[in-house]
Amino acid sequence: MREYIFEIFKKNPKELNELYGVRALGCYIVIAFHTYTSSILFLPDHLTTFRERIQNLEVVMDLFFVISSYLVVASFSRELGKKPFATAWKNFFIKRSLRIFPAMYMLIAFTVSLMSFTVLAGKAGINLGIMTDGMPKMERQLSYWWADALYISNYFPDRIHIHSWSLGMEEQFYLCMPLFLYIYIYWCKDTVKRISLLTFGLLLALLLRFYLFFHAEITNFDEYLTKIYHPIHTHFDSFLVGILLVEIMKQKAEEVQSRFSPKLFYFAFFILFGIYISTFQWEFKDAPFYYVVFRISLFAVLSGFFTLGVIAGYFRVLNSVFRNGALVVVGKLSYGIYLVHMYVSALVSLKVLNFYSKETNGYWELFVTSIFALLASSIVALLSYLILEKPFIKIREWTQPKYDLVGQRFYTSLVNPKELLVVATLLTFLSFLPYQIVKVFLKSEFLSKSIWSQGALNLCLLVPILLNLYSLIRFRKLWFVYWLQQNTELSPK
User: Which intervals hold domain Acyltransferase (predicted)?
Assistant: First the structure.
């Protein structure tokens, strides 16, 4: 149990720990941004005027996309070189599903239940205060629950989670990436051809947005988000930049720096950063052509240079900060933090901000709110990680080879028998979670009571009970204990 709990607080020498630090910084910026936007009705007028300009902090999302693309492609491309495509794709899909699905579907179940009970209370005539006027919108959002469940919410503005668009984009990339890499690797045999293809892809994205600027009706920032920034078919630049970094980093960091001198790198990076700073004050109405056509390209390339600076060792001083133990832990929890931060930030705002006197809410209050929101989100994410996510992560680690980013090779994790029992016990409890979720769905009237819904409820209860009874009788152990012992390699006692 001790190893299971405290493993996340240890640095893994086979991982690029500085990237966790970058993710931690990104998490804080996202939380600070959403703290501001969600509290804007309760801020003094002088703090509400730069709402659209602060949206330029969205560069952090492109930084996340670049890092995710780099990490995923580095592993999958190596596996593709060792195994048949079908096997490599199957392993990749299993690994990604075990990592992202449990927490995401738990969040969807929670949100659907909360919204359903709220709508039910509204229909019953209960006074919901300021939420009453928002009932029609909430009902409309609830009707699109499936967009989040299918990871296509980036194409539906009325989604149940305002921040789930990025999760949809990443999942769509995960689904398309293996086929693209298969063609990319076997058709482009040398590095020059591959870099040329990726550069062409970046230009293609630019040309597509150039075309849409003249042929799509994009008259304001919200339409820009819906039609350009959120859909992956107009915003795939960052993922291509991540693949480009994989090509560059096939060499050692020292070799990269010898080919691309630090002075040249810093010059290019600060030119890009200077352009970003100079455009930060621009709003959509001031520069619609820049927003539609060039903004995503700038974000992607700048994020790529920043990531290269971290992984190739150009940012030595920054890297020492990013490798800080606390930042690494927050970075490891970044997925869970991102999922829950909207709820947590709202609750923290209620405690810190004064909703009766707007003038008392200033920069300091927003800063304090964002810090407490990050800390609280980290605690919630840690609990989610240990109870809900890590059992599935352990299945992934024990049954699938893991990629060593530093040594650029695969390795397998041996199973600690005591840790196996902890994981199996948690999985046994989690196997009853679908029953509880369906039960709540019926109570909130999200699911109509019928013979089919009652049958689904009974099935969710009977399957884990019967499976464990069979396993106890046949093997004298719980089902997940037996399954894990059969499908993993135990370490020597």
Answer: 19-380
Distance CA 205, CA 236 (A): 7
- pLDDT, one tens digit per residue, over 165-211 is 999 999 999 998 888 888 887 788 778 888 888 999 999 999 999 99
Residue 175, number of CB atoms within 10 A of its CB: 13
Distance CA 398, CA 431 (A): 19
| Tokens, residue 91 | 């392993």
Determine the pLDDT at residue 355: 82
Q: What is the residue type of 309?
A: G
> Is 215:122 a contact under the CB 8 Å cutoff?
no
* End-to-end CA, the chain: 16
Spatial distance between the Cα atoms of 55 and 221, rounded to a whole number of angstroms: 10
User: Which run of H or of E encompasses 455?
Assistant: helix 451-475
What average pLDDT is seen over the chain? 91
Kind and range of the H or E run holding 411: strand 409-411
The 3-state DSSP class for residue 410 equals strand
The answer, as to whether pTM is greater than 0.90, is yes
Number of H helices, E strands in the chain: 23, 2
Q: Whole-angstrom Cα distance, residue 106 to residue 112? A: 10
What CA–CA distance (Å, rounded) separates 368 from 490? Answer: 47
Contact (Cβ atoms closer than 8 angstroms) between residue 424 and residue 489: no
Give how far Cα 205 sits from Cα of 30, 49, 208, 234, Å.
25, 32, 5, 6
CA distance 360 to 455: 55
**Euclidean distance between CA atoms 169 and 153, whole angstroms:** 9
What is the predicted pLDDT for the residue at 253?
A: 62
Count the alpha carbons within 13 Å of 121 in the hemisphere toward its beta carbon.
14
d(CA 330, CA 377): 10
Name residue 55's amino acid: Q
Enumerate residues 6+ apart whose C-beta is below 8 A from 260. Answer: none
Contacts of 455 (CB under 8 A, 6+ apart): none
Residue 374 makes CB contacts below 8 A (sequence gap 6+) with 27, 28, 31, 330, 337, 341
Strand partners, 404: 409
Give yes or no for a contact between 177 and 73, defined as CB atoms under 8 angstroms apart: yes
pLDDT at 42: 84
Q: How far is CA 60 from the centre of its chain?
A: 12
